[in-house]
């Protein structure tokens, strides 16, 4: 018989509710951004997604925690098969993604310029409970955009019906095979070559070092046709179907699955292309420019994912704070803990508003309704991607801390939040690469498309209750032109600070704008939340980094 004392206390775990109804920021944004009738039509789906996200899917995700994809390279009889077995949650997630039109909705012309807002609102609820299934969806979205616009009718007719299918059986996802051993950032150095065989079929040879979601039915990739020059202009964009009609890989070997810090459900693989058949998508050069629409869309998904991970962390930490008692009180009733949760909420609200504003602009650009053509979106995309990614890592770290030691213990499922979030500032362009991309965009269009939009939106903060927000945003915007007035080297050395500053201003202005629009609508306490969040953000979280005009600190780097 045990002589242990009976346990006096067992902590109840955090729980999730209906993740649409509980996400006051998302619902406030949609109420202001969508026409009433359209929102009304969508509410049932949002509500269902919110319920499944916080209920059935979250439970399955928790049960799936220890599963990982598995690569079987050889059959028992010695045949090279290179089959990847996905985790049970990922198998189901593909059907759900198709059923809810998580890619197709963005291309539904009946929704007009709002198609993207509705698509990403749905994805918002799906992503945090499906262990980065958003990654293949992001690449699929990028492929659908490219194949819709590239003018290659044969490829469009073959792949688009699958990429935009709402039926799990017909739905295809797309890979994006870019990264090679020589670089994931400097893609212009791609070593994979493309040659035509005797039948005129293009065949690709080379090693793709980091291909996410290697189970996709198609992929877009870069290779250098023989005799083409070095650099990104000598690359071409190719379409590949990895498997033949019998499901066999076509001159492709899966060398291994990557042993990553996080996103471990994602079957990211190293591939050897050994004459893999491929089709040029849009000519035989300018490959980087040709794949750029895919990059910009996956960066949009990256930002959306960052926000949804912040929201998930906050939901769990809030639930825990309502249950956990320490020093005689629930955590939620303790002023310092409340302040911590408020800061997390304010950061989330700001990141979400910057992201949803970018998504709205994407919808306008795609439907020819954007005031500055594509220029504002081109500026927003790298800036919002890099800013939200870093906010998500900070928020995940704070989430773990809200749980004390339990946040550091694997079987609570919490450490995965931090490991997963860390990828957001690395893939699809690191913070530095994206900061330089922002400079590239500013060099092309000037700062005006962004600055004028931010000034106009700040001018609209004309309510007495938003006066303080107006003053803080105006003051910040006045500083911006001076940041860009430097020689090329100094500008480059300051690119990250400039990008983060512009992101913070965008986040503040968009959140303040939501506060203003919410106040203009009738209603009770719920309508006040964006204002409370905006004031908290402006007073406690908003700060701009200094631009270094004294030199670059290179002497500190060791060279
Ligand atoms: O593949 C990866 C894993 C996939 C995982 C998917 C996750 C989805 C997340 C969803 C969350 C759930 S990771 C791969 C990571 N690698 C990258 O993202 C690449 C990072 N590097 C860059 O972005 C660089 O800036 C490069 C490669 C684009 C730089 O290329 P270049 O060739 O050195 O630079 P250039 O010469 O400036 O650009 C070439 C052309 C130019 O156009 P033209 O030829 O007309 O002058 C640029 O204006 O490409 C154009 N361009 C762009 N256009 C470059 N970037 C862009 C852009 N972002 N938008 C439009």
Largest sheet at a glance?
5 strands, mixed, barrel
Taking all residues together, what is the mean pLDDT? 95
Neighbour order of strands in the largest sheet: 4-5-9-7-6
Shape: globular
Number of DSSP E strands: 11
Question: Which spans have pLDDT < 50 for at least 5 consecutive residues?
Answer: none
Describe the fold and architecture:
The chain is built from 17 helices and eleven strands. Among the domains are: 174-286, Beta Barrel (Butyryl-CoA Dehydrogenase, subunit A, domain 2); 433-557, no CATH class. It has 559 residues and is an alpha+beta fold. The chain has helices at residues 24-33, 36-54, 56-63, 88-99, 115-126, 134-149, 153-163, 287-323, 335-366, 375-402, 415-422, 431-445, 448-459, 467-483, 488-493, 495-520, 525-541, and strands at 70-74, 80-85, 174-177, 193-196, 202-211, 218-225, 236-240, 252-257, 269-280, 325-326, 329-330. 51% of the residues lie in helices and 11% in strands. The strands form three sheets. The protein has a five-stranded mixed β-barrel. It has a two-stranded antiparallel ribbon with strand order 1-2. A two-stranded antiparallel sheet has the order 10-11. The model has no long low-confidence stretch (mean pLDDT 95). The chain binds ligand UCC. Ligand UCC binds at residues 132, 134-135, 138-139, 176, 178-179, 184-185, 187-188, 212, 232, 286, 288-289, 292, 295-296, 298, 301-302, 305, 427-429, 433, 437, 440.
